[in-house]
Every structure is written in structure tokens, then in C-alpha cells.
Amino acid sequence: MSTGFFGDLAPIPYAGPDSRDPLTYRHYNKDEVILGKRMEDHLRFAVCYWHNFCWPGTDPFGGDTFQRTWMAAGGDPMEQARLKADVAFEMFQILGMPFFTFHDRDIAPEGNTLAESNANVNAIADIFQRKMEETGVKLLWGTANMFSNRRYMSGAATNPNPDVFAYAAAQVKNAMDVTHRLGGANYVLWGGREGYETLLNTNIKQELDQLGRFLSMVVEYKHNIGFGGAILIEPKPQEPSKHQYDYDVATVYGFLKAYGLETEVKMNIEQGHAILAGHSFEHELHMAHSLGIFGSVDMNRNDYQCGWDTDHFGMNVPELALAYYEILMAGGFTSGGTNFDAKLRRQSIDPVDLIQAHVGSADAIARGLKAAAEMIEDGRLKSFVHERYAGWQKPENAAILRGETSLEALAERVHGQHLEPQPVSGRQEYLESLVNLFV
């Protein structure tokens, strides 16, 4: 039975590039084959629960602008949660996207005790399970919200109070159980408040050791329950804490190495967080691929005039082309996918705006994917990079990286051969122009 929230809006069809109907897909054709794989299987789109069904449209200077029925003050929280689930699955079907994602506190209200909170989450998960069986929509990943409640003001795993650490562990256990029960392809840990506001009251080594042990227990529990999905960390440099320990991909990799977790945990990389860290999205994707920890992505973008995480829908095709070039070069997604971790602008108050935002972004991403595939098929970018480093394939140079030479030996080589290396052009402008042929 329809909730009526979206009126009589029908599922969004693919109508082709010539369509001018904003409620049709122009480029996202899920059955189109790109590099031997269906577009839907390349992109693995997921709709997030929190921004779409939980965010009321507030900002630091103004109150709620989204007057959704299930957000009304004074309503029964579990009745509202059930209505929210009904609306969510209607939206998933209208969009025709294969996955969704959630935090535990997105889907059900927090109770007076953790047992009550867990019961609420499990009750809504029962509804999800039935709706997933009816619709074929799947869970890309679940996670636990360990940053909103007052108890987590000083972090969860990194909290100076061991009782908060234990509470967070118990909350994560239930979120993992629910994710496993619903067939989730991954489980995500976002740092939340795992960081600090001032060093004057912080012992970083203590907090990192706590975080390392917490993550180790998550990995141990994954294996104990037979969860086959990936454990993912989502890097973010700051916000809500001044400094977050999961600053960027490279920082997280160093942390994983320090605690022996580099083969157990991968990255869920967000474009907006990459920008906050002073990187490009493609940098973080390339870094994760290089380090063997690429997993999944949260797709959004920041407003470059703002200094915070604004979570716009991704609409910039050239940026998306470079991102999906890196994703394809990494071998594409396995358990991961493209999660629309994006929210409407607070002036976009109509239900149809939720649909239009996802349709427009899906089309932009599809265009980026096709451009990236064409760049790979063209081969000139990859060939140029290969040739630039070709000298390292010579036996005497490959021996350097294998540890079969020394500073003394290299000094003797330079002096004996009277080496005077000559620079070779990096041809950046040519390569940028080459990219523009495809976008």
C-alpha cells in the first residue's frame, strides 16, 4: 500500500540522451554493457537512509525546513520509524537502485536502555527483511551512530571512560548482527568523534591503542559470526572533532599497519571528506588502490566556497570521470559500491526533489563512468604513465627496489658511467587535454 508521499510518481525509466524529461534517466542505463559488465553492476548504486529520511533541513542559523510526516513533534517514535521505512522502500523502487545504507539510529529511535534501543532497531530490521524480499533491494552496508548521543561527546572507542567504550562495543555488536542478518555486503565504521578538540586534555597514544583494540574486536567478531562482507573505515580529517584520527587514506593505512589490520580492513572513501583533507577525490582513490585497501565510495561533493562538509549531490562530470577512472583502474567494486551520501539543499522541500537529485546525480555518474571506460579503452593515459616509469623495468634498476644494491654501489655506477640524467617532459597539459576528449 502506497504512503502517498511521492504521489503517483512511477518508477524512473531509462529514456536515452535525447530525453528532456527530468524524471527519466538519460545516461544511467543499468543494462548497458561497459567494459564487459552491466552498468548497474559497475556502479552498485545505494540510497542512504540518513540524509533522505532523517535530516530535517536544519543549519547553524535556521531550523527545520523539511516538514516530513514522520518527523512531526509528539508522534509515536516507532510508528514514525515504520512510516519512514515504508516511504524509504517506495523511493528505492521509484529510483530502481539496487542497494541502500543506514546507521542504526537512522532507522529506529533510541530507547532508555541499550536493550530497548536494540529491540527498536531489530523491529525495524524485521520490516526491512520483509521489504527486501518483496522488492529485491539489498543492503550495501550498515553502521552504528556513535556520535550523536551525549555519551559520545568525547568519542566512542577513543573515550577516556571505559564504560563508554564498552557501551559502544555493545552497540556495534548489534549493528553488525543486523547487517549480517540483512545480508549486508559490508560493515562501515565512520570515525564520528574519534579524535580530539584540544591536546591539553588528550593522550593520543592511549586513544589510538583503544581504537586499535576496538577495531580488532570488530574484525574478530566478523569472523566469529561468519560475516562475509568487508569491514570499511571512512576517512575524514575533521568535523565533528577538530582533528580526527582517520584523517585520510594514508593516515588510516598507517594506523592499520600499526595494529596489524591492513589485510582485514578497507576504505569507504567520500569525495567531500577528501576535499576537507586537502586532496582530490581521485587522489584518495588512487592511494587506496596503491595500498591495496580500496573498498567503496560515498558519492557527494562539497561547495568549494564553504569550509565544511556540505554533502551536495555529485553533478560534476569531469570530476566524476577522473574518479571512476581510478575505480576502474583499481579493478572496480567487489563488495563495495556508490553510496549517495548526499542531501538536498534546505530550500529543496518537495518530495520530488529527493527523486530528481538522485536521478540527476546518477546520470552524471553514468556519464563519468562511460568517459572513464573510453579513456581506458583508448589506452593513451595508461601507456604514457607506463612509459614514464619504463626505466625501472631494466634489470639493474629493478634490482634497486628488490634491495639488491646499496648507496655505495649506486654512487660507483654514477661515477663510473659519468651519468648526467636529462629531464623528460611530464606533459601535464597534453594529458589534461586528452582527458577533455572524453568528458
UniProtKB/TrEMBL annotation:
Its cofactor is Mg(2+). Its main location: cytoplasm. One of its GO terms (molecular function) is xylose isomerase activity. One of its GO terms (cellular component) is cytoplasm. Signal peptide: none annotated. Binds 2 magnesium ions per subunit. The active site is at H103, D106. The keyword Cytoplasm applies. Mg(2+) 2 binds at E270, H273, D309, D311. Keywords: Carbohydrate metabolism, Cytoplasm, Isomerase, Magnesium, Metal-binding, Xylose metabolism. It catalyses: alpha-D-xylose = alpha-D-xylulofuranose. This is Xylose isomerase.
